[in-house]
Amino acid sequence: MTAWKETVGGRRALTILRSRPFLTVAIVAGVWIAASFTSRGFGSYGHLRYLVELAAVIGLVAAGQTFVVIAGGIDLSVAAIVTVSAVSLPLLSWQADPTGLTAVLAVLALTTTIGLVNGLGVALLRVHPMIMTLAMATFLQGLLIIIAGGSAVTAENPLVRWLGNARPAGIPAGVLLWVAVSVIVLAAMHATSFGARLFAMGANPLAATLSGVPVASTTLAVYGISGFTSGLAGVLVLGMNGQGYVGIGDPYLLASIAAVVLGGTSILGGLGTYAGTIPGAILLVTITALITVVNASPGWRSILFGSLILGLLLLSGREQARR
Amino acid sequence: MARAPLLAAREVSKSFFGNPVLRDVSIALQPGRVHALLGENGAGKSTLINLLSGALRPDGGAIEVDGRPVSRMTPACAQQAGIAVVQQELSLTASLSIAENIGLGAYPRRFGLLDYPELAVRARAACDLVGLHEPLSMPVGHLSLGRRQMVEIAKALYRRPRVLILDEPTSSLSATETKVLTELLETLRGEGIAILYISHRLNEVMALCQHVTILKDGTCTADRSLEGTDAAGLVRLMVGRDPGDLFPHWQPSASAANAISVRNFSAGLMRDVDLDIRTGEVLGIGGLVGQGQEDLLLGLYGAMAARTASATVNGASGLPSGVPKANALGLAYVPADRKREGLHLIHSIITNMMLPAFARLPALKLRSRHAERETARGLAAQLGIKGDLDRPAQALSGGNQQKVALAKWMPHDPLVLLLNDPTRGVDVETKREIYMMLRNFAATGKAVVLLSSDTPELVHLCDRVAVVREGRIVAMLERGALSEEAIVSAAMGAEQRKVAA
Question: Do B367 and A271 touch (CB under 8 A)?
């Protein structure tokens, strides 16, 4: 009866069915189906497409976060970096380049550098990742207030506007960008020796060091990647929003960490996959949308959001005991 | 009339996930007797201890305290019955002080608050028994592995046990500490305490114990008095066949060429060491535990800051600046604490075996899962690691974990193998295999540096032994001059002079 479980394909299928990413996908599907029946218009293609588009921003921020968390760290500066990207891009009006590509590349170089500085602090100065990235976030926020003040800045960049609004073949450009990034991230994580080093560092940094893993340069790289993907998310959110302002990135700190953990990645490092973070991001956006449907004040919405995330984590994301 | 045993197991059985680990095993711990429990890794010793101490419940059979069966043995019950266990895996908290660790879970209280003066008095009494003279306020993390083991024993004594279970207490102890422990156990035995003693060192067992229970593959193969047995007989009962020689036949294979040569080398505790490591030799590093031997290996391996006047490592001048550089120069290091330093317990055996490869391949080179599996299968076959390689490393027994920690370097064909106590807590059969590997390794012209706390191992396996005391090499014993006495006396030289003066 259960012979199919004994075959190679059967066992592989079972492994996938029991995996955390699949569980998260199942929860998303369940919530979508249930919500479509109860809430008019929720299940429409346009609405779901909109949800995925929103999830793309979280997904991009969480891509870097997944790298950092798997390698045993945490990046609390992602929200500030998103804001840096979204605010500084409009300030860089590169008249010489009609496509706007140069300005985007310059901003990405800037955010990657910020990430690398995080990495330097963690790897070489041995500052705890939480302290290092939190200090960086505070520093950046101060800098942004000085530079941009309280006013919103409007983006005149054609590439950014295209990214935020274009829909080639009916699919939002931001979602396409997310898909491309996801493919690269998954390949780097699971198909390269760089990826294997991350898991080793996260699971046991001492054993990784003694096995010859270049821990310092790898740490530098993960925080650099996190800076880069946060910068990319900032560009996308600027395009979708049209304007950048101080605080635009704030929701993405908790969201990125929650997406990572909801997707089954261990917050202690060493175990996990971006394949779980992707549905994790979509699940978060879905919850936000459902809460918006409930007619409640912003305070209650926030309370509901926090409680729901906690509840979901209790349901699926508790750390298994490990030595 | 026979007295009722203080603690006994009657025909207990236990299986994990359908695999029987113990089948109808009985053991009776009598007061005033040191009872040895022998068996290879995976024979079921740890499971039996866990049943006796209430950490696990038997599937069949019964645990008896003072001759009365206990229906639901729990760790709390065991503690109440005066059963104390010294675990092989140290259970201390590094950031707490010695006294706090000793009292943990049984703190004396006054007015609902922790009574530190009382704790200090009682902890001091326990420490004096085991010869721990470090200040009680010192964090345990500052102690060497051997001293931590003594704290662990003091912690058990603090609870004034009637039954003391010791799981490989001497595996990280120096010769002096072992002697203190031996005398202590004799005293406790005289006071009528029942002691269960687990060790892989048969000479200790022969000297200390009166009765022996031997487990093999989960069944009891002997339950008898130790009188009239010899070590070879015990090994035969453990492995189920004639032991043969534990150590391979020694043949000179050293050449005149140096693999590593350092002058005025200092790292950690080590000061101004001159050392030449020849290709094709097994160089032993001996001495009391914690004299700086580990720092010597780590310094050579680039894992610890080191200074040197001049150094040549496999033809390159200067010490490696980091571990990746050391690996590139053909150095490999197998750490002593395999769970903490050697392995990624939550990752699969394959991943563990392939890690050095991941570390040295170009970062963005694509992996081939198929090739990794093939390599890992080859290594597993070569070293006799059985079972599914997709299991996490923590599923393996101690001996097999050590094999994985060794195996991961084999594909890189290292020129110098730096080993930090590779046979600690490893069963006889695995020890023999490791010894064989090391000699073969030397015979193919590689250099092996063997840091060991097991003196017979140094005597029988090494071409030369450097004895370290207080951060210096105080003696370099050549093969002809090697004996346990020579190593121990060199290791304790200072203490002997003090006595003489």
Answer: no
Contact between B262 and B318 under an 8 Å Cβ cutoff? The reply is no
Q: What is the CATH number of domain B258-330+414-500?
A: 3.40.50.300
Sequence-ordered alpha helix ranges (H) in B196-257 = 202-208, 231-239
Which residues 346-375 on chain B approach chain A with CB closer than 8 angstroms? Answer: 346-347, 351, 354-367
- Is the pTM for the entire model greater than 0.90? no
Query: How far are the Cα atoms of A61, A71, A126, A136, B111 from residue A220, in angstroms, in the given order?
Result: 17, 11, 12, 15, 52
- Alpha-carbon A283 to chain mean position: 13
Q: Let me know: does B238 contact B38? Beta carbons within 8 Å.
A: yes
CB under 8 Å to A89, separation ≥6 — which residues? A103, A104, A107, A155, A157, A160, A234, A235, A238, A244
* pLDDT tens digits, B199-235: 877 788 888 889 999 888 788 888 888 887 777 777 7
Nearest to A52 by CA among A181, A179, A166, A185: A179
* Beta-carbon contacts of residue B213 (< 8 Å; ≥ 6 apart): B27, B35, B36, B37, B38, B220, B222, B223
**What's the topology of domain B7-239?**
Rossmann fold (3.40.50)
The ipTM value here is: 0.84
Q: What is d(CA B185, CA B183) in angstroms, rounded to the nearest whole number? A: 5
Nearest by Cα to B472 from B269, B258, B319: B269
Q: Which of A188, A195, A206 sits opposite B340 (nearest CB)?
A: A206
Residue B343 with chain A: CB contacts under 8 Å? 204, 207
By C-alpha distance, the chain B residue nearest A207 is B341
Residues B301, B303, B304, B308, CA torsion sign: positive
- Residues B269-303: tens digit of each pLDDT: 898 999 999 999 999 998 877 788 899 999 999 99
Chain B residues touching residue A272 (CB < 8 angstroms):
none
For residue A172, what are the domain limits?
45-317
The total number of structural domains that make up chain A = 1
User: Where along chain B do its domains lie?
Assistant: 7-239, 258-330+414-500, 346-412
CATH of the domain at A150: 1.10.3470
Candidates B355, B372, B396, partner chain A, best to mutate (most A CBs within 10 A) = B355
Selected residues 254-313 of chain A with any CB under 8 Å from a CB in chain B: 270-271
Q: Cα angle vertex A227, ends A223, A230, to 5°?
A: 130
Taking the CA atoms of residue A204, residue A206, residue A210 and residue A214 in that order, the dihedral angle to the nearest 10 degrees is: 80
Of B323, B346, B354, the CB nearest to A322: B346
Tell me the three state secondary structure of residue B384. Answer: coil
Mutate to test the interface with B, among A210, A220, A225, A323 (most CBs of B within 10 A): A210
Q: Which residue of B has its CA nearest to A200?
A: B344
Domain-embedded: residue A128:
yes
Q: A147 in a domain, yes or no?
A: yes
SS3 B7: strand
Q: What angle do CA B127, B130, B136 make, to 5 degrees?
A: 25
Residue B199 CA to residue B167 CA, distance in Å, equals 7
For B112-135, how does the pLDDT look when each residue is reduced to its tens digit (9 = 90+)?
A: 888 888 888 999 998 888 888 888
Instruction: Please compute the mean of the pLDDT values over residues B428-446 and round it to a whole number.
Output: 88
Does residue A74 sit within a domain? yes
Contact B365 A193 (CB under 8 A): yes
B219-225 and B211-216: which strand pairing? antiparallel
Q: Is B408 on the interface with A (CB under 8 A)?
A: yes
- What is the total residue count of chain A? 323
- Is residue A5 situated within a structural domain? no
